[in-house]
Amino acid sequence: MCLVFRTDAGKGGGNFKDIESGVFCFKKYLAVDMDKFIVSARKYRPQEFDTVVGQAHITTTLKNAIKNSQLAHAFLFCGPRGVGKTTCARILAKTINCESLKPDGEACNQCNSCRTFNEGTSLNIHELDAASNNSVDDIRSLVEQVRFAPQAGKYKVYIVDEVHMLSASAFNAFLKTLEEPPSYAIFILATTEKHKILPTILSRCQIFDFKRITGNDTVDHLQSIADKEEIKAEKGALQVIAQKSEGCMRDALSILDKIVSFTNGEVTYHNTLEHLNILDHDYFFRLLDYLMQQDLAGAMLLYDEINRKGFEGDLVLNGFAEFIRNLLVCKDPRAAVLLDVVEGMQNKYTSTAAKANGAYLVSALNILNEAEIHFKMARNKRLHVELTLIKLNFLQQALELSVENGVVAKKKRIDGPLALKVRMIPSLQQKTAAATVGAKLYIDNQGGVARPPQPNGGASGGSMHNGNGGFTNGGTSTAGNPGMNNVVVNTGAAVAEPQGRAPVVPMNRTALPAKGKKSLLDTLRDKYGDQYQIEEVKEALPLSMERLREVWDAYAQKLEGMQKPSAANTFRLSKINIESEVRFSVTVNSLIQQTFIEQERIILLDTIQQHFYNRSIAYYVILNEEEEAEEVPVNLGLNSRQKFDKLSDTYPWLRELKDRLKLELDY
């Protein structure tokens, strides 16, 4: 450390006595305070497995392995930063070399091996930082050290931290030693990015996945340290620190040290928020009240107040989105366990969530998420946030309005369940010919078909479509529709079972919506509706072998034109057998042929159904591997020798020319 004092003593403006006293005080501060102070992350670093926080699943496994003498030769500790990977590696290295283990598998901390480890003078434990020693020469030097047995103790332990930083050549140099190390060598690798390690390294290690430390465990550990250091700490402040650390105990302890220095040993909730630059949730409660009341001016002024306190727009968007998420969680009591807020705020969140509309919260969360994504690309950050607040301010009004027939109106509130809107389908079952002869079918503008009322107002024994999206019992309409124009069709004969698709009935577009304006859909119908003709209902053709073979061969020809000769040959070789009026079978001789047929099923079946005007036609494939497929002549072309022989037969002098010039054919 270099200490520089600037003085103007030569000009009569300095006082050497003051400088000497200042240097003396500074030296005293260095000697007394700086030498004794150790950051909490180092001072309270766990020395035993039982003191490791939040990793019981790993410490229990390691203790049992030590007690049962079932240690692997290589370990890989992976997980987020600051969760105890290197700490557990050091504890494991100390414990396996302990000369008198405790019954629970912990080190005694009394033997010579434990004392030398605690003092940092042990020769059996070597730590290597792979981030700064990642070359192949560093790994070769480590491999050379492995050859020598430990001077004292059972094992030589090599801890390689940040192992994912090793180069590819260093990994390759490490492979053989890691696979077959000496019996006294144990490797402990630690990393935060397991996916960057070679699979050959992973397969040689026993992998332990460390998890993030929960908020409750972090708060309990911070509280115990505060009690030991005689620090007054509010539980709300410790919970904020735990949330800020995001499961990293080292970060939590560092934050605690900073806040203790900032607050002179008294850690309060508000001081913690101020030091960590975290926006208090009270602002979010106020902002939500303004938005729910559609008080845009109040919301904008509150954002200005927050901005003048030094909080950027992205912090406001992110914090408000998290606030809305917490309200959504509180809507369901079963999900209340997911609420991660300061103690004492749960009731306030629950009461606010009960007043808020769930649809509004979901829509607001979506708007905030989009705004946060596009925040970095916005040139005017303040305007971007204010535009988001404007959207949220009028969001409630947008959710309550709807557009019907071009008119903006308030959504109608329906207490009962909504009925399913269905369109009446004409019965496909023919009743009796006598009951339908001379009957009239009423076809409304919605495409529904209904029978007329029975004589004498009698019931027909069933329900019928009334053209207004509802049904009537006994032919009596329950609702009128002034915009419906019924078309009466006199059948004059029995209604036969339809064989194809139902006829298309054009819709009546004479009725205009409210205010006499046509909608865009009606305009398009008027413009292009005449281009579409009413589809004619055609009678289904019988399934005959002659017609089916004709369609089948035509499809094979189509495949050949699509440069699929193998599929075309398969279609020609297959055998067709009609099973019924709507079903036939296709017999093939190999799995390849079956695959070709199945690949064309959708288009092929649609082609056959269109040809016979029957959508009920189907087929299935039979695999018959016993029969040999007929050979199909394939034109493979002529080679050079065959071409020369044919030309020589036609032109004899060609062979003589070849012999005189001593030419050879190019194969």
Explain this structure:
This protein is α/β, with parallel strands linked by helices and 667 residues long. The chain has five domains: 40-211, P-loop containing nucleotide triphosphate hydrolases (Rossmann fold, 3-Layer(aba) Sandwich), CATH 3.40.50; 214-278, Helicase, Ruva Protein, domain 3 (Orthogonal Bundle); 281-404, Zinc Finger, Delta Prime, domain 3; 545-623, GMP Synthetase, Chain A, domain 3 (2-Layer Sandwich); 638-666, no CATH class. It has 27 helices and 17 strands. The strands form six sheets. The protein has a five-stranded parallel sheet, with helices on one face. The protein has a three-stranded antiparallel sheet with strand order 11-10-14, with no helix packed on it. Strand 8 and strand 9 (407-410) form a beta hairpin. Helix 10 (235-245) packs across helix 11, helix 11 packs across helix 12 and helix 15 (313-330) crosses helix 16. The protein is flat, with a radius of gyration of 43 Å. Residues 448-481 are annotated as: Disordered.
